[in-house]
Specification:
This protein has 3 helices and no strands. The chain is an all-alpha fold. The radius of gyration is 20 Å and the shape is elongated.
Amino acid sequence: MDADNIVPFEAPTPPRSSAIPMKNDLVEQAAEIVADPLVLINLVSKRVAQLNQGRSPLIEALPSMGFADIALTEIIEGKIKLVEGSNS
């Protein structure tokens, strides 16, 4: 194999996420309020979507908090609640 035929290849670096990971303690605290993990995920996801669309946080958000942390804290503080039978 000639050196002219070798093409250097660098493994692609994984894309960096701009999202800040959720804090484990917040997940655990919120799980005490919303016991079903799938329901908790859906509730947080819907709230994160609202925050992404420009809705204001219902708590005093710190700069280090991601939208998921804000949503979890809102659940913990009782600012947002699951309404049984709601499809929206």
